[in-house]
Every structure is written in C-alpha cells, then in structure tokens.
Design a protein that fits this description.
single chain; alpha+beta; Aminopeptidase; 12-stranded mixed β-sheet; 6 helices; 25% strand
C-alpha cells in the first residue's frame, strides 16, 4: 500500500495533513482548478490561511489571481502562498506584482522514516502529552490574545468531541519546570501531521522543537500510526529533523506579504435590498 504521506514522492500527503488540521480547527477549503484556498476566518495567522498551488497556466492566471486573492483580501486575511518548485515564472511575477515576497528558504515537506523506530534522544527538554483538561497550557504558543478564544474553542472540540477517526494529541516541551514550546499531533484517520508552533529564538527553542518532533515520531511508531508528516521553512530545523529520523520528500516555494504591505480594501457600497424573497402564503 502506498505511503499516504508520500504520494508519488511529491509530499502531497504532508500538505493533505496540514489542510486536514486547519479544517478540523473550524476552517474550510475552496478548490479551484490547480489550487486549494485553505481558510480560517477567525484564526488570522498565515499558517491557517494559505494557497497551495499545484498548476495554473499563463492563460488562466488572471482569473486565478482575481479569485484567489479576492477571497482573502475581502476578509482582511494575509495568506501565504505555497508553489511547486521551481516556481513558474508567470506565477512568481504575478505574486510579486501583488506585493508578495518570496521567502529565502523553501518550505520542506518532511516525513518520519517508515517504519519509525530508534531510541528516544536525550536532551534538556522533556515532552508531555496533555490531557484535555490542560489544553489551556498550549494556547500562548498558538496565537495572540485576539485569536485565543477561537483557538480554545477549536481545541476543546477536538479534545472532547473528536470524530470517530480522529486523534488529537497536544504536546508541550518543558525545561526547568516551564512550558517552552508546543506542538500538536493530529490524524484524521488517513494522514498524521505534526503541527509545531513557531520555535522560540535561539538554541533552546530549536532543542525544544526537536524534542517535540522526536516524541511525535516515536509516538507514531508505538501506536502503529502512519508515518508523521510535517513542514518547515526553517533551514536549521529541517537539518536537525533529518538527524532524528525525518526525511525530505518534497518542497514548496513560499511567498508572504511583508508586514509593511497594507491591504487596500475597497469601501463597501450602500446596502441593497435582497434580490429574492421566499414566497409567502396568501393572507387569510
């Protein structure tokens, strides 16, 4: 049976795991010809709002840009863009024209070795899998104050009311008695993804991220789950993941909107009456 994380050696399964996680969090996906618009209107970070582009030809790029970017900009969302590498020149030029900038490093699509195995690595951080009652401990790592209530509701649903095929394991890395980083191991029954909060700067942040990834890899092996997929645009983290049993199976070019690029949203027009009303029964 093919590895669902490594579809045709392209890493499409890693992207499928990423999308499954956003949908489980209360987001949704709109499928266009050649691209997926993954959206969460209440979790504003680009990790929850992105365009995964498969293939859009030059003759269809105008309609694609209008449909895709209008979808996010009308919601005041700043998506990131993931393009197959090497990025097609017409798409690269188009996204740059709209203010996007290409990240220095590509996003690596990684999978744990199959079968996953090996001893747990030693390090300065320990990893805890949290019970549902302690979900609040991961919230500071996943969003700002404006998003925290929405994230708390989403995590609560996943922890206490999972679908029959779902598995949701919140993780924290601890050092010196303090929570220093977080990750979530989520499976929809088809693919399993490791979703890591942004590592804290410095070597301690890197070590905490590696401890979380190592725990997830061994947890998947112990419970006979499918190989774990994860993605990262941090070159140092990708290198370190390779040292503990993850392998790169694909990559994407990433485009983001810089913080100093403002969204020029059109003013809303005057309210108009509804164009259709349901028929009413005749008055007695």
């Amino acid at each position: 049976m093919p590895d669902p994380i490594d579809v045709e050696g392209s890493g499409e399964g890693v992207l499928a795991a990423e999308k499954a996680f956003v949908l489980a969090m209360g987001g949704y996906s709109i499928e266009l010809s050649g691209a997926s618009l993954v959206t969460h209107e209440r979790a504003l970070a680009p990790r929850f709002n992105y365009v995964a582009v498969d293939s859009v030809g030059p003759e269809r790029q105008a309609a694609f840009f209008e449909r895709a970017l209008d979808h996010y900009f009308q919601r005041a969302l700043r998506p990131r863009i993931l393009l197959r590498t090497p990025a097609a020149s017409h798409l690269d030029e188009g996204f740059r024209r709209f203010g996007f900038r290409r990240s220095m490093d590509p996003v690596a699509l990684m999978a744990s070795a199959s079968p996953a195995g090996g001893a747990r690595r030693s390090g300065p951080f320990t990893v805890e899998a949290l019970p549902p009652s302690e979900i609040g401990r991961i919230l500071p790592f996943w969003g700002g104050p404006a998003e925290r209530d929405e994230l708390a509701r989403a995590f609560d649903v996943l922890a206490f009311h999972p679908n029959p095929s779902e598995s949701f394991v919140p993780l924290v890395a601890r050092g010196d008695g303090t929570d220093v980083s977080s990750a979530i191991l989520y499976s929809d029954g088809r693919v399993t993804g490791l979703h890591m909060a942004t590592p804290a700067p410095g070597e301690d942040g890197m070590e905490a991220a590696i401890a979380l990834a190592d725990h997830a890899r061994l947890n998947a092996a112990a419970t006979d789950r499918l190989p774990v997929g994860t993605l990262s645009g941090d070159r140092r983290l990708v290198t370190r993941l390779g040292q503990i049993g993850y392998r790169p199976i694909g990559e994407r070019s990433e485009y983001v909107l810089p913080r100093d690029v403002e969204l020029d949203l059109p003013r809303p027009g005057p309210a108009t009456p509804p164009r259709w009303r349901p028929p009413r029964a005749p008055a007695d």
